[in-house]
Amino acid sequence: MEILRIPARNEAIPEGISFLTQALKNKRIGSKEANRAILMAEEAMVKLFQHAPPEATAKLAVVSRMGSLSLKLSVPGPEFEFEKDVDFCMDMQMDEGDSQAEATIRDLLLNAFRDKLRYKNRNRCNIVLISVKESEKQLLYWTVAALISSILLGLLLRQVLPEAGALALNDYLLSPVKTMFLNALKMVVAPVVFFSILSCVSQFSNLADFGKTGGKVMGFYMFTTVVAIAMGTAAFLILRPGQEGAQALTSAGQVVAGAEDVNISILDTIVNIVPSNIVQPFVNADMLQIIFIAILCGIAVGMIGDYSRPLKEFFEGCNTLFLKVTTIIVSVIPLAVFCSVCSLVMLTGGDTLISLIYFLLTVLAGMVGMVAVYSLLILVVARLNPLIFLKKYAPGMLTTFSLGSSNAAMPYNMQICRNDLGISPKVYSFSIPLGATVNMDGTCVYLVVAAMFLARLYGVDLTGSDLTAMFFSVFVLSVGAPGVPGAGLVCLSVLLVQIGVPVEGAGLMMAIDSIVGMFRAASNTAGDVAISLVVARLEHLLDLDVYHKKVV
């Protein structure tokens, strides 16, 4: 933190402005953001100095915290109504004298940037905070901090609390917080998917264009799903996790209640896409049925003539509303991660986590392989430089990793598609919500490696026909899996029953599901955005100037 102290007099303002300007330059802040911050700082200092006692000293500081940057102006003095003064001056006439005109202009400027200002009085000291830059990775930093602190606290509680105390703490505090968070995410999944896809489909005035674009998106999604299954198999056969430590891992297994013997049939999956009523899919959160209804309604909206415009505006408003609700919910992800991991470590200990590291590395190897496949598609099919994609989408992968949910990351991924990659809304408004449901490449890698890993631990020999059935099951499960935290564990429970592995094995994955789920989500959304880029390029819906624009 850089600090300068100056006399609280107007004559000292140029010195303060010079200090702040140089500090922002050293921080490599863009000229637009720096000029705005300096303008606000100058006008705020004038107002603060007016309420400062004689011989007072002002403190100017440049504060950097978790990637965010702000200016802090501290001046001794009594509390005054900083924001009320701004509102009052807006109604004043400009011809009441030069000094009054200057005050009016000053307050109008501060009012224009009110969302970047915060005023408070602490211990008879007036403080103004001016936001220069908000970090897009702040949530990631808090989540990592929560992850580390929860592991340390969990290990400590495991040592000091008796078993009954640990169970009570988990049942009455940690587990309820985690459950409420997951319930809140599940609450918005259906409306987010429905309104996103409906709003997108209704934009197509020509249904032939929609069918062409949608067909390419689905085709590439299915292709990468098959490749992901093969990649997971290759990673397992090469790295061969589970050969050591089987006894320790098996003893840590927990029974996962509620898993049923599910008959996975491609015919049933296709038939069940069409619901028998319009309400039940939203009650059951059946994503494929919801997508079908959204596409059908979107096509109909474009065919009803004069009524289509107000309906499009209404659905766009609903889409914006529920994406904002999702953003609000995921803002508490650090708390949910803290409770989830602390509960895990406190109840199972650190040995289980260490024993599963090799399994985690195998899954990560498969996911890295999928990133290489996406890069190859961008290079060969779209004829674009994949390094630009990787550089521009790296923050998106980190953010999705921190959220641990494909659906929760949809707003941010759409923003990257539009602002950084230059993809048309006609592509990403359809492909991103659809991909969050049907394109689960990271989940495919995880399910294949986890199933074969647990089969080895429990001594279940998988024949060629067993592997074929398992691959087909993984394909169907990945298409219907919701993009929310915990979905992979549910799908794994179903898959284990399918291949004859004791369902208790799914309990082993609970030890690291919150961690591997973050990597799954990042891999899933990387595939969604990469395919969106490829299809946009093929359909001439990509702004190449935006794509090739250098990242600042």
Question: Explain this structure to me?
Answer:
It is a single chain. This protein is of the alpha+beta class and 552 residues long. The chain folds into 2 domains: 2-135, 2-Layer Sandwich (Heat Shock Protein 90), CATH 3.30.565.10; 139-189 and 219-267 and 306-548, Proton glutamate symport protein (Orthogonal Bundle). The chain is 68% helix and 7% strand. It is built from 24 helices and 5 strands. The protein has helices at residues 13-26, 31-50, 82-89, 98-112, 138-160, 163-201, 207-239, 246-251, 266-271, 280-284, 287-301, 308-330, 333-348, 350-355, 357-380, 386-403, 410-419, 425-438, 441-457, 464-480, 487-499, 505-509, 513-538, 544-548; strands at residues 2-7, 57-65, 68-76, 117-121, 125-133. It has a 5-stranded antiparallel beta sheet, with helices on one face. It is globular and about 85 Å long.
Any idea how many domains?
Answer: 2
Low-confidence stretches: 85-97, 250-263
The 3D shape can be described as globular
Helix run count: 24
Rg to the nearest angstrom? 28 Å
Order of strands in the sheet with most strands: 1-2-3-5-4
Helix content: 55-70%
What's the CATH class label of the largest domain? Mainly Alpha
Distance between the termini: 23 Å
